[in-house]
Each structure stands twice: as structure tokens, then as C-alpha cells.
Amino acid sequence: MKVFLGVDIGTTNIKCLVLGEDGRILDVLHSPTPKKRKGRVEFLDLDAARSYIEKAISEITELHSPAAVAFSSFGETIVPVKRGEVLSTPVMWYDRATYSLWESHKEAVDKLAPYRITGVENSYTFSFYKMLFHKAYSNLESVEHWLPVSSYLPYSLGAEPTWDMSQACRSFMVDIHSRSWNSPLLEYIGETEEAMGRLVYTGERIGSTKDGVPLVSAGHDHITGLYAAQVFAQGREFLFDSMGSASVIAAVVTGTAETLNFDRPLMPGWTVGIAYKDHQYYMESNVRHYGKLLQTLMNLTGLEATKEEYEKINSEIEKLKQWNSKPLFLVNGDLVTGEGLQGISLLEMPIPFRREQLMQSAYIYLASISKRIVDNIERIAEKALPIISGGGGSLNCLLMKYKASLLDREIWVLPTSELTALGGAFAAARGVGADEVIDRCVSIHQPSKTSPDERIADPLREIHEKNLEKYSLIEEEKKIAIQEG
């Protein structure tokens, strides 16, 4: 059977989804994303990642006939190459090794890349600062191309050097309105548009393997998941709630430089980026540690972050006779903390305290963050929008029930937790004109629904409002100058 492959290199796992020409999801292969440390810096083990992906594609090829392949990945991480050779090991997107470079260059960079053209606030995580890091510490000779992971992998198989528009938005080096590289910023870093590569939309064909299999562009993981969610929405306006290691709540809109010309973000974490065709944008707000927060807390309490262990702790949570509004969570990169604190801080944790109480508080915290983002986006949209959810977090039924109840609406949960990999498979199919495969998939795989539970809605709303006041007081009274660190 002909199949379309979507390969997603995520923060935690690599996924390879096999979409049959009949529209069925035939298989999803998984492997932990390989990383390695040098000193205090964490890097992507690119050789190990490539080896696994090549092995997975080879195994699939023994059973099926690949009709096209597309790769997505986390953003920000960048790979310097020359004549196909990797010149330096890529730094993981979240690593703070670039923080001092961000502090040194931020003022100059802000003048060259204002929010109105980047659509995102200046952050140490972006590819721009990874390039500075490689230039400073890797003793690089001339670099032929700088590529994100989702572009390097097809490039290594025979594709031309390109950047998916959604990945370019995570570089901090693109003008989201002209949809071109920011030449003054590239000059500042001593690079050229040719070194960066051609900008393309998700679903554009970018080359072929040596065996003639078409290679198609996909991009930033959350936005590639949004690409799949948009297909399932079938033309309806919606919000996409992507819950992986990080979290994004996003919407797709049509606009222009005039209608979407913001001088500053409308809320913490607010981003406007390039979507899938001319005059189309995505608007989103993100939280850096979402599933990663839950995984950390599970490990802290002696549990593994597996489906079975989550079901076990959820059963214990549902037996609790009272709700737990504490501790408060201050997490690096969230709506309250920003870059002011590193890691995870817990405030006012009761004594004694059991693990099921801690996890319930974390679920409430995450549901509350989602509500704040949804409320802000809908103030802009001036209407309530249906929510489509995907990612590993959508498999946690209790967390989803908390979110639906606090938001007071149904949440559609898409039929695979590997929505980003499915988005890649959709991009692969569209890149070779096989739209009928996508239509078949949507007709076969219908979303399920998580409905609000009236029994828990009131206590959740009460805790949400109470904790909002507490977070405001923490900052206003300067008990902790959160944003100042």
C-alpha cells in the first residue's frame, strides 16, 4: 500500500506516523529523543536521531511503499552545515546556554527586530541566539547553511535547504508580514539570506530522496499539529489546544500587515506568526513547561509519567474529599513568571501533603492557565470558539475534564495523541496532490468529546479566581519580584 509518513522530532520523543492511502493511521513508531550533555549544556544527539529515523523508514518500506515524507520538529534548535556535513552539535531549544548572549545583544537586536515585524517577544531560546552560540564556541569555518531540525533531516536525504515559515517564526529573523528574512538582522550576525535558505509553506515539495520519494515541508511541531487540527475543523473557526511537553493555544486567522500590526504582545507569551498560505496567520500564546511540569512532579513523587501511573494517581485524586488550591506554581516561561525565575517554584505548600494533592493542584494550575489564554484570545475574537485538543496531554482524561469544566464547554479530542506527526503526514499527502487521502482520514477518525462536569465546575472556578488574586498580590506587594528574577 502507498503510505504517507509524518516524522516529528519532539522534545521528549521521536514519532513516525504511517498514513495509508485509504486514510487509516496504520502505525505510529516511537523512540525517546536522544540527547547528550557536554558540561552544563544539553544538545540534540543528531547522529542517533538520524540513525533511528532511517531505521524506522527502512522498516516501514519493507511493508509499504512511501509516497511522500514530511518532517516536523521543535523550534529554535539550529544545525550549521557545509556540503551536507554537520559542523556543530545542535543545542536543545530550551537550554539556557544562550542566556548571556541574549542579555548582551538584546538591546541592539530589539532595534533591528521590533515586535511589529517578528510577532514575538525577544527570547534567549530563538535560533538567532543559537547561531551566536555556535559562532562563539564551536570555532566554525564558513557555514553554507543554517537549518532547523525539521529542514536538516530532509536536506540530509536529498531536499534543498529550506525553512518552513512556521520554523522561521521561531528563528526571530523573519518579517512575518513581508514573509522574508530580516536582512538588517542577518547583516548584524554576519549572515545572508542565501545561507538561511528559501522560505516555504507547509505542504510544499522541497525535493526527493535518492530513491525518488518526494520530500515535503512541515515545520514547528505545534503549528504542524495546528495544520492537522484545521483539517478536522472543516472550515469552522476554532481554537487549537496543543498539549505536549510545552503547550500552545492557537487560532488561524486571515489578515494583513495593517490589521495585524501589533507594537507589543496582547498578553504574556502572545505570538503572531505565519500560517500556511499568503495573508494567513496564526495567533497563539504558549507555556514552556506543560506536560514537562506534570512529568517532573510525577517523578518527584516516585511515579513514572506513564499512562498506567497517571490512571493510578487520577484514581487517587478522584477519591479526595476536599479540593486543593495550594501550592501555587511559579514555572519558568509561564504567564506569571516569564523569565524571572528558573525551573519550578512551589509556594505555600501545605504540611502534610500527599502526592495526589500535589497532582490535583497541578491540574488546576494548568487548567487555569488554559482558561486565561482562551479568555484573552476570545476577547480579541469577540466570540466563544470551539476547542480542538491534541498532544499527549489530551490522553489524560481527568486533566481534560478539569479543563472542560473550568472553560464551561466541550473540548473535541482528536483521534491520535500524535497530532503533529499526523499533520506532517497530511503535509506529505498535500505536497504530492493526494488530498483525497486527507479527506478519507477525516471521515474515518472522528474526534471524541470531553464535556464539562457540573459537579466540579463551581469549585474549580472558585479556586481559579482565588489563585488569580494571589498571583496578582505576589507581584504587586513585591513579596517576590517575579519578572525581575
Share of residues in strands: 15-25%
Instruction: Let me know the CATH homologous superfamily of the domain at 2-221.
Output: ATPase, nucleotide binding domain
CATH architecture name of the domain at 2-221 = 2-Layer Sandwich
Mean pLDDT: 91
Uncertain parts: none
Shape: globular
The order of strands across the largest sheet is 18-19-17-16-22-23-24
Give the helix level as a range of percent.
25-40%
Brief sketch in words of this structure:
The chain is an alpha+beta fold and 485 residues long. It has a domain at 2-221: Nucleotidyltransferase, domain 5, CATH 3.30.420. It contains 16 helices and 24 strands.
Characteristic terms for this protein:
485 residues; alpha+beta; Nucleotidyltransferase, domain 5; seven-stranded mixed sheet; six-stranded mixed sheet; 16 helices; 24% strand
